[in-house]
Amino acid sequence: MNTVQDKMDFIILAAGNGNRFLSADLSARRSKQFQLLAGRMVLLHSLDAISQWPSCGQIVIVLPEASVENDILNYLEKEAKEIPVSVCFASGGSSRSASTLNGLKTLSTLTPNKLVAIHDAVRPFVPHQVLDDLYAACAGGADAAIPSLPMTDTVKHVDQTKTVLNTIDRGTLKRAQTPQAFLFDKIYRLHQENADKRGKQPVTDDASLAETAGLTVVCVEGSSQLKKITFAEDLNIMQNQQTEIRTASGFDVHRFSTEKPGPIMICGVAIEHKYGLIAHSDGDVGLHALCDAVLGASSNGDIGQHFPPSDEKWKDTSSAQFLQFALEKVKEAGGSVTLLDVTLICEAPKIGPHRDKIRERLAEITGLPLNRLSVKATTSERLGFTGRGEGIAAFAQASVRLPTSYGEQG
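^ thats the sequence. predicted structure below, dont judge the formating
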């Protein structure tokens, strides 16, 4: 949308300890920004949406002041390398304003753009239309712009005893959201000045500093998608509202070779048989069918599209690689696989004796627990090519949970 020099930088605040979230669910061991939503870390949903906005510049992620668990940090660093824009990390402070200042300081060392937006990581879904509107408002002359929504409930003014004093006119009230956009130099200076004050102003959102300083702050239309995760129940509700279950099927067949001896590969397990299979890869019909089912559920085509048999690169390749590729596509979309089911059709070899080993191997390949993996077998009552022992076939189904906005972002 804009030239390189017109990019807007971002600071994503992920430094909170999530006390309100954790107190609501004592079993939650990690702060809300590191919880999983639709199979992907809440923080990474924010990062994905922002980094894919065409006018996104550099991104600074502010992490907790105390050290982050190594597995989380390593994972974040790995994911950051896959992001299409520059991403770096800063350490948070003892308050939201201190964390924001640390983020701004880090950004100041990176030759910042004229505009910067500050976002709470626990608002995981960020519509690009909101970012467009924020940019337009600041580019149009405002010192700051914030997304906001109207108050829909009646608002009461109460005293300390919770006695209602009066009803407030909600027509003049707005609910502020993030990201909030600013002229970098001005918001950086305001945070520096506030940090130097003895009785420093509590900052619940960055726009409050701009308001107090008399800067022009304008509101743009917010979005219900920008809902913030505060309590554990918020995450549960968002999980249901922001995701959907998709199911797709897959099918594959391979012919036996009278010239090539077994064993044959079935769902990653080598099973003895007098005949081998005619195939470009390892001919694993179970994994091929599962791969197509997963690709179908995430609308990513089919196995032949990604691994064409005409390409010598895939000759004799383990089909586990194909299924793992399909699963990675679901992960990249912010989703998770909820069930894999495969039915193998052949007269021989007998599948039953190998069923447990097959499920265990599928668990190794996919990383899914056994209770999400189903393996069934049947014959075709000696009818058709499988009944005549000419080959083996497999039907598969996959169910995945994906964000409802999948495929619509940007």
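The chain has 13 helices and 19 strands.
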